[in-house]
Amino acid sequence: MKRKKKERQGLLKKTLESNPFMTDEALAEQFAVSIQTIRLDRMELAIPELRERIKDVAKQQLDDVKALSPDEVIGEIVDLQLDKRAISILDVKSEHVFSRSGIARGHHLFAQANSLAVAIINDELALTAKATIRFTRQVQAGERVVAKAQVRGSDSGFTTVEVKSYVEQELVFSGEFVMYRTNEKSKKGERQNENRD
């Protein structure tokens, strides 16, 4: 069923508000229109292209990474709220894939997820104590992997982080990372309480 232009544009706007990382190609497929139609709709609605949307999100919601230096992060972090959630993007290039099959090497997807799990921790020291991971689909050269991390809980110096990685809207990797942290927050709180006694 073909939608009317105004209806399609309204849905396009809502879709990009909920997922600003969707490509024009994925949007065209979702709305069953040409890529050119999506681009024209975006221009009429003053919605920037994907790269600009990514930069906008990064400027709005990026805390400073504490546990890693910027060159240690695999992928580009575009959203970070320490001890809450984070998002990173990895564009899979020829150096990330097996030369014969063009399939991404698993350790790159793991490294993206693991570095995001480390980056989300609001502490100077964060180490992976345990990881339970699952690859659900092969990733090819030229695809963009969006990893989304969410803190699920903390207990006794350990924080559990869930990471799910997607290509377009399809899950390609999931993992649960138990992160060791030095727990600076609780130590500071204990010191303050001792000083009051």
From TrEMBL:
Sequence similarity: Belongs to the FapR family.
UniProt-recorded name of the protein: Transcription factor FapR
Function, in words: Transcriptional factor involved in regulation of membrane lipid biosynthesis by repressing genes involved in fatty acid and phospholipid metabolism.
Any single biological process term in GO: fatty acid biosynthetic process
Organism of derivation: Halalkalibacter oceani
Single GO term (MF): DNA-binding transcription factor activity
CDD domains: hot_dog
Keyword annotations from UniProtKB, A to Z: DNA-binding, Fatty acid biosynthesis, Fatty acid metabolism, Lipid biosynthesis, Lipid metabolism, Repressor, Transcription, Transcription regulation
HAMAP family: Transcrip_fact_FapR
Gene transcribed to yield this protein: fapR
Superkingdom field: Bacteria
